[in-house]
């Protein structure tokens, strides 16, 4: 396995007027292709900053970041945009879907910016892979939270990214929808070898990954493999067997 | 991102907020409507004026008496030195098709209980050839009429209408300044406005006018005339004919230093009038253009609000790979769609208004309006330009937003 993410001695210092606020104090991290990793830590620990740098939404103050063999720590805004478009799929806590826009159009959007062909077929395939084949013409306000998050996942994976970056993806979901989302991440990781990086402060969610990186005060304080990752799919069936069998969310 | 895609996105966001988009467009609609209406009035006036001049023909020269000085005061066209004999001499020049001397004055024409005021022209038969003036019925002043100083008159269409309404005036006797004249013909109506209106003229033999109506002076044994109309073969020979005429008249009047005549061409008049109506059109259009700029500011205002409102959307788009250019084009397209739609709607309204007001009487002139392609292209390109100009700033603001800040914006 080759490293998809190589971070060396990355520091990020924010300037608030005259005061310098360090958010990352020299972080080094390597993520191999095909890993599923959780980054955890209390709020203010720097995990969001790290996530922004990994997602090419921000550049480090110092240090290097090599993504898929490309040094992305010194790229311009537009070059970063291209990297985000082609190599990274984002999933946010608040879904961040465009308002009043059909699921199909949401998923087509990254391909629009990439200028990719066959958008409709690929968008439909992506939606089908997250189990939303029957919701392609629905707008966000016509979808449940879990369904909205699955549209976001379809949007994240439609350009075949190297990594999917999920920031508290289950934070706004009930536990059932949360497990559903986790099972999709696990399946994408298992079946398609997509690297998944989750930022979460819920140990229960982090337990679904195979490696947990703990951050505090801008340092990595712990980086441990998970001996026995939980299988969301299995829990899911268990959940269904125990419940009345109402598997589908209300439409 | 290609153009079709950005137009689609822009259309979606414009139609998502129909009332606001409509009100924004209203500024442009009113602006373009005003520009189109004003330009149509200006163009209409120009068309009327030039059509009238062209109906007479541009290969026409007017020789008029020059200015003289009396006790230190210059008097316009006061030299009483241009005579019918001069006119006869000019008729022999090369490239001259016809020469028509005239004397003129104002007078009252009365028939039964009706009366009208018009310009009295003392003319020779050549007048109709030189000036493209044709009779609608009856006949024009003949050489015999001139010879005999006959008390006959040809009425302009407007005068005939005023005096006789629909009745046939030919053969009737009218009174001009209290004297009896027999109507021998009626001219074709030519239209025109103000001083350009030839329909209120009446034509009598030049000899009759000189002896009975206007009272012509004599100079060196010839009858003084007020204008000699010279029709030339073509405008291309104009300069040489003007030179020839000047030579002949200087020779005949024995003047050396100071000409006692002026020569004006129909082409000069046309150029001058075109300049005046052009200036007028630009003036009207410019005033209307101000409202278009106000409309543009409205677009800028709404686009700025829209950028702030959609900060989060911009952040999402950036996160999934939109470059600055993509965002810039998206918002610019939106501004231009607002202004272009506004422009097109304004164009329709403006054309409709131009049509409605065309033909309205204003004083003694009829308002004519012409919506020509120039005005349409100008209004559309100007409204697009307004959209571009006032859209750049908001669009650029959207494009340079930092993705993280935009995503966190609440």
Query: What characteristic shape of chain A results from the CA principal axes?
Result: globular
In what range is the share of β-strand residues of chain A?
25-35%
Let me know the number of strands of chain B: 16
- Adjacency order of strands in the biggest sheet of chain A: 6-7-8-3-9-10
Write a short abstract of this structure.
Chain A contains 8 helices and 10 strands. By secondary structure, chain A is α/β, with parallel strands linked by helices. In chain A, helix 6 (175-192) runs antiparallel to helix 8 (232-242).
Give structural notes.
Chain A is of the alpha/beta class and 251 residues long. Chain A has helices at 47-54, 77-87, 103-114, 119-129, 145-157, 175-192, 203-206, 232-242; strands spanning 3-16, 19-32, 36-40, 62-67, 70-71, 88-91, 163-167, 195-199, 211-216, 219-225. Chain A has a 6-stranded mixed β-sheet with strand order 6-7-8-3-9-10, sandwiched between helices. In chain A, strands 2-1-4-5 form a 4-stranded antiparallel β-sheet, with helices on one face. Chain B is of the alpha+beta class and 410 residues long. Chain B folds into 2 domains: 3-53 and 271-408, no CATH class; 80-259, no CATH class. Chain B has 13 helices and 16 strands. In chain B, a hairpin with a 2-residue loop joins strand 15 (361-362) and strand 16. In chain B, helix 2 runs antiparallel to helix 9 (266-309) and helix 11 (324-357) packs antiparallel against helix 12. The longest helix of chain B is centred in the last third of the chain and has 44 residues, at 266-309. Chain B is elongated. The A-B interface holds A 52, 55, 57-58, 77-78, 81-82, 84-86, 90, 92, 96-101, 109-110, 112-115, 155, 159 and B 1-2, 5, 12, 16, 312-313, 315-326, 403-404, 407.
């Amino acid at each position: 396995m080759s490293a998809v993410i190589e971070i060396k001695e990355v520091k990020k210092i924010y300037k608030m007027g005259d005061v310098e606020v360090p958010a990352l104090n020299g972080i080094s991290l390597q993520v191999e292709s095909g890993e599923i990793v959780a980054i955890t830590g209390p709020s203010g620990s720097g995990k969001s900053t790290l996530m922004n740098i990994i997602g090419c939404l921000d550049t480090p103050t110092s240090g290097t970041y090599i993504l898929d063999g490309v040094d992305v720590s010194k790229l311009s805004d537009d070059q970063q945009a291209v990297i985000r478009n082609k190599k990274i799929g984002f999933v946010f806590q608040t879904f961040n879907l465009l308002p009043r826009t059909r699921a199909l159009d949401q998923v087509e959007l990254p391909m629009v910016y990439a200028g990719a062909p066959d958008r409709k077929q690929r968008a439909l395939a992506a939606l089908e892979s997250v189990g939303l084949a029957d919701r392609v013409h629905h707008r966000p306000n016509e979808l449940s939270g879990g369904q909205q998050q699955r549209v976001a996942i379809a949007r994240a994976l439609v350009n075949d990214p190297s990594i999917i970056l999920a920031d508290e993806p289950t934070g706004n979901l009930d536990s059932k929808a949360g497990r559903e989302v986790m099972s999709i991440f696990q399946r994408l990781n298992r079946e398609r070898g997509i690297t998944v990086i989750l930022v979460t402060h819920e140990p229960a969610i982090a337990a679904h990954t195979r490696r947990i990186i703990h951050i505090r005060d801008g340092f990595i304080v712990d980086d441990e493999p998970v001996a026995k990752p939980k299988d969301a799919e299995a829990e899911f069936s268990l959940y269904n067997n125990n419940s009345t069998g109402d598997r589908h969310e209300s439409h | 991102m290609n153009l079709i895609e950005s137009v689609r996105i822009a259309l979606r966001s414009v139609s998502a907020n129909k009332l606001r988009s409509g009100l924004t467009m209203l500024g442009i609609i009113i602006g373009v409507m005003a520009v189109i209406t004003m330009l149509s009035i200006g163009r209409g006036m120009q068309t009327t004026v030039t059509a009238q001049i062209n109906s007479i023909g541009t290969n026409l020269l007017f020789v008029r008496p020059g200015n003289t000085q009396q006790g230190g005061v210059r008097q316009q066209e006061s030299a009483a030195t241009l005579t019918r004999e001069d006119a006869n001499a000019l008729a022999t020049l090369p490239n001259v098709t016809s020469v028509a001397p005239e004397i003129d004055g104002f007078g009252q024409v009365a028939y039964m209980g009706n009366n009208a005021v018009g310009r009295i022209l003392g003319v020779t038969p050549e007048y109709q050839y030189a000036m493209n003036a044709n009779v609608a019925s009856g006949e024009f002043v003949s050489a015999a009429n001139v010879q005999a100083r006959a008390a006959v008159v040809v009425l302009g269409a407007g005068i005939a209408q005023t005096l006789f309404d629909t009745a046939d005036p030919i053969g009737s006797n009218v009174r001009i300044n209290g004297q009896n004249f027999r109507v021998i013909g009626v001219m074709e109506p030519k239209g025109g406005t103000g001083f350009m209106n030839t329909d209120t003229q009446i034509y009598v033999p030049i000899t009759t006018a000189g002896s009975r109506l206007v009272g012509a002076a004599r100079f060196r044994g010839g009858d003084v005339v007020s204008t000699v109309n010279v029709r030339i073969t073509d405008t291309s020979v104009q300069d040489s004919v003007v030179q020839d005429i000047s030579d002949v008249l200087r020779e005949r009047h024995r003047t050396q230093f100071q000409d006692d005549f002026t020569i004006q061409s129909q082409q000069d008049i046309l150029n001058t009038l075109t300049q005046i109506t052009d200036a007028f059109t630009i003036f009207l259009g410019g005033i209307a253009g101000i409202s278009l700029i106000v409309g543009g500011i409205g677009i800028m205002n709404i686009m700025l609000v829209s950028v702030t409102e959609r900060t989060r959307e911009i952040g999402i788009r950036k996160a999934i790979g939109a470059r600055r250019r993509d965002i810039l084009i998206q918002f610019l397209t939106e501004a231009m769609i607002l202004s272009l739609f506004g422009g097109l709607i304004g164009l329709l309204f403006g054309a409709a208004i131009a049509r409605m007001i065309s033909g309205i009487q204003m004083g003694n002139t009829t308002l004519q309006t012409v919506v020509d392609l120039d005005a349409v292209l100008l209004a559309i390109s100007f409204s697009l330009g307004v959209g571009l100009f006032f859209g750049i700033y908001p669009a650029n603001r959207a494009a340079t937003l930092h993705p993280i800040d935009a995503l966190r914006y609440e």
